[in-house]
Write a structure and sequence with these properties.
single chain; Nucleotidyltransferase, domain 5; 166 residues; 5-stranded mixed beta sheet
Length: 166
């Protein structure tokens, strides 16, 4: 997929429907950052699979890519529908990555958060937002038309950074 391009890049994917996809290079330059593409149907956000593939293909062409995909897991108290949706997104991203023949690794949230966010202040999603704000000040965590930073974007940035550290 990457042809002759030898620039090493790391693509982090938070696989949730409100997740994100980020790409950084080996020099910690932010090359791309987007929300997971979705469409609205019946008041719900659904994955836009063709757009997911297009973004990943575009990002992977930027260099010798390694994708870091957050491993899906159910959470205590999470309902059956929510658990299914979490696994569904993880499966979609796995299929797209495989179809595009991009090397990848999966990582549990507990592993990357322990390693990347060690010593970071804050709780929950605020930790990854704070880390990215400090480590990658050019990362646009607040999409156009929004007022708050997106934790899915921040988590995707952290996943890319975790991949760089491998």
């Amino acid at each position: 997929m990457n042809g002759q391009n030898t620039k090493r890049i790391f693509i982090g994917i938070d696989s949730g429907v409100s997740g994100g996809i980020a790409v950084i290079d080996e020099h910690l330059n932010v090359l791309g950052l987007e929300d997971t593409p979705t469409i609205k149907a019946g008041g719900k956000s659904l994955y836009s699979v063709a757009d997911m593939a297009a973004i990943l293909r575009r990002f992977a062409l930027m260099g010798a890519a390694l994708v870091i995909l957050e491993q899906a897991q159910s959470m205590p108290g999470q309902g059956v529908t929510s658990t299914f949706q979490t696994g569904y997104g993880f499966g979609l991203w796995n299929g797209i990555i495989g179809a595009l023949e991009i090397p990848y690794r999966t990582v549990k949230p507990s592993v990357w958060t322990r390693e990347v966010l060690k010593g970071s202040s804050g709780e929950g999603k605020a930790r990854s937002i704070g880390f990215v704000t400090r480590m990658f000040p050019t990362a646009e965590l607040v999409p156009p038309g929004c007022r708050k930073p997106r934790d899915g974007r921040a988590d995707a940035m952290c996943l890319g950074y975790w991949g760089l550290r491998l």
